[in-house]
Amino acid sequence: MTSVHRGGILIRASAPAKINLSLEVVGRREDGYHLIHSVMQAISIRETIEISKRSQPGICLTVIGADVRADQNNTAYRAASAFFEKTGLGEIGLDIKLIKQVPVGAGLGGGSADAAAVLVALNERANTGLSVEELCEIGALVGADVPFCIMGGTALATGTGTTLHRLSPMPDCFIVIAKPVQSVSTAEAYRLIDDAEILPRGFLMEDVIKSDIKTIAGSLSNDFDSVIKLSGVEDIKRIMRLCCALGCQMTGSGSAVYALFDKKDAATRCYNELLKHYRNVFLCKPDMEGARTE
Questions:
Q1: What are the pLDDT digits (tens) for 125-137?
Q2: Is the pLDDT of residue 104 over 70?
Q3: What is the pLDDT of the chain when averaged over all its residues?
Q4: What total number of domains does the chain contain?
Q5: How many other CB atoms are there within 10 angstroms of residue 30's CB atom?
Q6: Which of 140, 167, 194 corresponds to the end of one domain?
Q7: The domain spanning residue 241 has which CATH number?
Q8: Spatial separation of the C-alpha atoms in residues 160 and 86, rounded to whole Å
Q9: Is this model's pTM higher than 0.85 or not?
Q10: Looking at the predicted structure, is the pLDDT value of residue 28 above 60?
């Protein structure tokens, strides 16, 4: 391993985006943070970061592929700062390049994946030897979905979303994702949830995940689906159903929608049909691997 203090050698890392197979908002703490019960699945769309040494102290951030602010509020910047603070490495000059694949404001965890990739890259290059659990603790300081993007696979997220329990892997399938032009404010989505009366479900997705893909697809659930009413979301669902999706729903607080298929040809037809109407369309699969260096 080469230390980031002296090496100046480029390191590349990636982390997966995610979908929520189920998402239930179960409460709200006194400090305003909401409590959730969600089965999350990593997918094969990955955010990529590159880190190299720079002569000047501090962090210089560059973003490619999305209109995202490259400042101290960026999750990648915050992850690097949190890493240095927790490890006591002091000020180090770094150039961080984000190569974005995941659309912003989609509910796919792109910003969280950026942070996860930065933490894993710095841990390896600095030779700090932090465990996955320790990296997740740092990640939780940056965002609720960061620990999951570090871990990957299939997991039940509880509490504010940072308490994770690994589940049996999701059966192999094909996932089509599309994001409408409209985005959703997470804060506004949770305000709508607070004002809504949502009935409890009669099943738990963590039990259903052990079933076949058709059963899972028929059990998808998301509390935000009942309060977020966007024409683009409904139009995407309509196209997915016409293409014989096994099941479809919005992920996170939106606005991206995903559909599950057991056959690649049906998924490909849906992907091609959605491409006629939307810019951000993806065909991917479940990914059991979390953040990694490359």
A1: 999 999 999 999 9
A2: yes
A3: 93
A4: 2
A5: 5
A6: 167
A7: 3.30.70.890
A8: 21
A9: yes
A10: yes
The pLDDT of residue 127 is: 92
Question: How far apart are the C-alpha atoms of 127 and 36, rounded to whole Å?
Answer: 35
Active site residue 100: no
Catalytic residue among 114, 145, 225, 287: 145
Q: How far is Cα 39 from Cα 55, in angstroms, rounded to an integer?
A: 43
Residues 199 and 77 in one domain: no
Q: Domain check: are 163 and 18 in the same one?
A: yes
DSSP per residue, 148-194: HHHH-SEEEEETTTTEEEE-PPPPP-EEEEEE-S----HHHHHHHHH
pLDDT of residue 157: 97
Q: In 3-state terms, what secondary structure has residue 270?
A: helix
Q: Check whether residue 153 and residue 191 sit in a common domain.
A: no
Q: Does some domain include residue 230?
A: yes
* Structure tokens given for 141: 């300081």
**Is position 179 annotated as part of the catalytic site?**
no
Can the peptide bond before residue 255 be classed as cis, meaning omega within 30 degrees of 0?
Answer: yes
Domain C-terminal end among 167, 186, 210: 167
Q: Residue 2 above 70 pLDDT?
A: no
Q: Do residues 106 and 192 share a domain? A: no
> Residue 142 is part of which domain span?
11-167
Question: In terms of Cα–Cα distance, which of 257, 285, 237, 211 is closest to 108?
Answer: 257
DSSP designation for 236? H
